[in-house]
Q: What sequence folds into this?
């Protein structure tokens, strides 16, 4: 029987704490928010995002470095605005993300464009907007980008994403740096591809990048990838191609459930020592963190609709589902689930599930809870890859979102209505 946490910050969540038997984020009680805006409801802490950004900045103190928030982790305008106002750059993977960055006040000239499948239309829009760099992932993409840039009478700044072939030791679906992945160009072909890039009329070669995976919880894979990338930078230099920046991608993990990823500043102190030792301490560095900037800044409030005892299992059926919180169904990911107003009483073991018609629609398995219909639960670590992956499956409207800033709660997205969902559809 687990006693509920009754006071103080939740482990690994300095901006979420129990106060007078109530769950709070910064200075806002969460139960009244859920009553006012309904559930499921995403709630984010601005202070938590800024603290995560600050940890990277401490790590890079005194260096020429640019942090580009990976927009796909959470692309809501209010979240992008927090990073834009903090002077952060952005890493995008589609033109939709670029439009969002600019609508939120972000700067195109601090935005880099990643992804294996950029189309000619996306390239020309990004060039017109004046983005800082294209992170190119194949020879075919180099040819197309050069042609698109030449047609527009411009030159595109490019970096080539190299695949360092290191194992990030994370879930296979979020591991991207191995030979069998679709991402990047093979390490042993990189030199040849750079020579091609250098020779194409519409391109300026400015950098090199890699990204080995996501939810990485050890420093080892980063160090291995860095050594491999720096080997290539050496080889490029020897063949007369000088780079202006080195981009080490994103991928740093967060604590979902007793995970112990290195702190961003500690990790970068270690990595920078290696970079210095290899003689690249003066080179401009870029990184593309997503999850580690927003993941633990967010939670999702959900109401218990029914409890359903069974002969094998007890189910706690809540009003959030796999369409709102897709990570458990997609990657069997773990999110902590805690009561918003803990009750005193016997704990039962439940599978916490949503109403969607799929057995994969579960949010947590074998959780010890004391709950009744109408109680509120908070699904933690829901700031990254939740709302940005949310869908309308089962014709469910996507949740509203709140950004908490001290004692203020800003509605940054209204709950999606059925009319919103049907907009643009036509009967025969
Ligand atoms: C997804 C992605 C990131 C961000 O990854 P996180 O694990 O969220 O830090 C960075 N760069 C690229 C190219 C990506 O695809």
A:
């Amino acid at each position: 029987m687990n006693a509920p946490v009754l006071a103080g910050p939740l482990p690994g969540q300095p901006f979420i704490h129990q106060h007078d038997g109530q769950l709070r984020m910064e200075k806002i009680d969460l139960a009244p928010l859920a009553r006012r805006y309904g559930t499921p409801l995403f709630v984010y802490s601005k202070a938590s995002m800024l603290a995560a950004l600050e940890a990277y900045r401490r790590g890079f103190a005194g260096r020429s470095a640019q942090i580009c928030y990976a927009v796909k982790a959470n692309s809501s305008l209010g979240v992008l605005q927090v990073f834009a106002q903090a002077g952060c750059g952005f890493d995008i993977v589609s033109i939709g993300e670029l439009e969002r960055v600019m609508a939120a006040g972000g700067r195109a000239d601090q935005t880099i464009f990643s992804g294996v499948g950029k189309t000619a239309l996306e390239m020309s829009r990004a060039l017109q907007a004046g983005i800082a760099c294209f992170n190119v992932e194949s020879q075919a993409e180099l040819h197309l980008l050069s042609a698109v840039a030449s047609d527009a009478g411009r030159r595109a700044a490019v970096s080539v994403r190299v695949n360092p072939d290191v194992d990030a030791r994370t879930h296979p679906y979020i591991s991207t740096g191995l030979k069998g992945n679709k991402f990047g160009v093979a390490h042993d072909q990189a030199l040849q591809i750079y020579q091609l890039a250098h020779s194409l009329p519409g391109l300026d070669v400015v950098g090199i990048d890699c990204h080995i995976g996501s939810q990485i919880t050890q420093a080892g894979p980063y160090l291995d990838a860095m050594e491999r990338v720096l080997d290539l930078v050496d080889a490029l230099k020897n063949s007369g191609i000088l780079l202006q920046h080195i981009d080490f991608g994103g991928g740093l993990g967060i604590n979902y459930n007793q995970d112990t990823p290195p702190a961003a500043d500690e990790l970068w102190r270690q990595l920078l020592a290696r970079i210095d030792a290899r003689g690249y301490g003066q080179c401009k560095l870029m990184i593309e963190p997503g999850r580690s900037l927003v993941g633990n800044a967010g939670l999702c409030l959900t109401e218990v609709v029914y409890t359903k005892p069974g002969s094998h299992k007890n189910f706690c059926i809540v009003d959030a589902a796999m369409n709102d919180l897709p990570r458990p169904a997609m990657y069997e990911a773990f999110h902590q689930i805690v009561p918003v107003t803990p009750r005193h009483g016997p704990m039962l073991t439940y599978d916490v599930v949503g109403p969607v018609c799929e057995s994969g629609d579960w949010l947590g398995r074998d959780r010890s809870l004391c709950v009744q219909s109408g109680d509120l639960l908070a699904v933690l670590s829901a700031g990254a890859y939740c709302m940005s992956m949310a869908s309308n499956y089962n014709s469910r409207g996507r949740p509203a979102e709140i950004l908490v800033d001290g004692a203020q709660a800003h509605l940054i997205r209204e709950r999606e209505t059925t009319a919103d969902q049907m907009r643009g559809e036509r009967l025969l």
The chain has two domains: 8-45+295-422, 114-289. The two ends are 57 Å apart (CA to CA). Residues 102 and 183 are 26 Å apart (CA to CA).
